[in-house]
């Protein structure tokens, strides 16, 4: 599997990553860290374990000064996605400090991370300002949507995608909370429908029920999957570890002889995934998938 060269300059980095995303799914490790040193240590471990990128959650830092965050971005060898979540999106930033949250995100763009993540529900004027700043600085834009309560129908997911596209992002991210096997089917059908759209997208589920979608969605066409440095069943996200994610991808592409072959068999994999989910009560499905 092709990895992102860590030394790419901002001018060519974004186009290189987007082109790669359209050929194969990338792995991003979400990192919550209290300090500069802890973040860089975890990011280094994530890259060594097979992560292509890391997500810097600004809201997890004890010192959230622009200088600290910019130094992390400047000193990181792994490409970064920068986000700053408020409480509505299960982050640590108080809702009353929305302008401070977005102001810090805007400041960080100047340090030229690979991507900045801005939520779809952000005030339209503020969201547009962040996106414009990012584009002016050759920083990629991920416009994200999170539903921590439910999973809509595949048609509704596609409508959300269209709303995201109207913001002109480089990547559309949609995350839901599945409770039933039908919810899983809705997510996978939306992935199938959007796999050839001009704008790359990632769609998956949170929680135990959604765990396998973190592997299935990128196999079926999503451009990016999120994992953790170590699997943590207590955080409510049920993220798979970066080590396991990379191992599963490596086994699959070795069996199928590359991502091109995997993606050519997407319909068979989709049918198998849905059949498995609709006929069994126990998860995960991943173990069976790598043996097909």
Strand line-up in the sheet with most strands: 7-6-5-4-3-2-1-8
> Can you count the helices?
13
- Whole-number count of domains: 1
Uncertain ranges: 280-284
Structural class: alpha/beta
Q: Report on the biggest sheet.
A: 8 strands, parallel
Q: What is the mean predicted local confidence, pLDDT?
A: 87
Cα-atom radius of gyration = 18 Å
Report the sheet-strand fraction: 5-15%
- Write the CATH fold name: TIM Barrel
A few lines on this structure:
The chain has one domain: TIM Barrel (Alpha-Beta Barrel).
Q: Which terms summarize this structure?
A:
single chain, 8-stranded parallel β-sheet, 8 strands, 292 residues, alpha/beta, 48% helix, TIM Barrel
Structural description of this entry:
It contains 13 helices and 8 strands. The chain is an alpha/beta fold and 292 residues long. It has one domain (10-289): Aldolase class I (TIM Barrel, Alpha-Beta Barrel), CATH 3.20.20. An 8-stranded parallel β-sheet has the order 7-6-5-4-3-2-1-8. Helix 5 links the parallel strand 4 (115-119) and strand 5. The radius of gyration is 18 Å and the shape is globular. It starts with 9 loop residues before the first helix and ends with a helix.
Task: Give the helix/strand layout.
Blueprint: H1 10-23, E1 26-31, H2 36-49, E2 53-57, H3 66-75, E3 80-83, H4 98-109, E4 115-119, H5 124-136, E5 140-146, H6 154-165, E6 171-176, H7 181-194, E7 201-205, H8 207-210, H9 213-220, E8 224-227, H10 242-256, H11 259-264, H12 266-279, H13 286-289
Parallel strand pairs: 1-2, 1-8, 2-3, 3-4, 4-5, 5-6, 6-7
């Amino acid at each position: 599997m092709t990895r992102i060269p860590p030394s790419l300059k901002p001018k060519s980095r974004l186009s290189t990553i987007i082109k790669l995303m359209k050929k194969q799914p990338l792995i991003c490790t979400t990192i919550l860290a209290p300090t500069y040193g802890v973040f860089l240590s975890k990011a280094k471990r994530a890259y060594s374990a097979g992560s292509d990128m890391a997500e810097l959650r600004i809201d997890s830092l004890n010192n959230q000064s622009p200088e600290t965050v910019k130094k992390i971005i400047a000193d990181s060898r792994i490409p970064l996605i920068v986000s700053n979540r408020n409480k509505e999106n299960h982050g640590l930033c108080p809702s009353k400090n929305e302008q401070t949250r977005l102001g810090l995100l805007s400041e960080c763009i100047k340090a030229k991370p690979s991507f900045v993540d801005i939520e779809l529900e952000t005030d339209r004027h503020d969201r547009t300002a962040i996106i414009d700043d990012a584009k002016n600085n050759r920083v990629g834009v991920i416009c994200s949507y999170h539903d921590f309560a439910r999973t809509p129908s595949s048609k509704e997911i596609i409508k959300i995608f269209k709303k995201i596209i109207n913001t002109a992002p480089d990547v559309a991210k949609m995350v839901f909370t599945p409770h039933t096997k039908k919810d899983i089917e809705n997510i996978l059908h939306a992935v199938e429908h959007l796999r050839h759209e001009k704008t790359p997208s990632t769609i998956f589920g949170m929680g135990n029920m959604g765990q396998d979608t973190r592997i299935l969605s990128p196999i079926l066409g999503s451009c990016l999957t999120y994992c953790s440095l170590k699997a943590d069943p207590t955080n409510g996200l049920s993220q798979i570890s970066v080590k396991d994610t990379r191992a599963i991808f490596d086994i699959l592409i070795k069996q199928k002889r590359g991502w091109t072959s995997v993606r050519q068999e997407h319909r068979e994999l989709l049918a198998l995934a849905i059949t498995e989910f609709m006929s069994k009560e126990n998860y995960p499905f991943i173990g069976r998938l790598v043996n097909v």
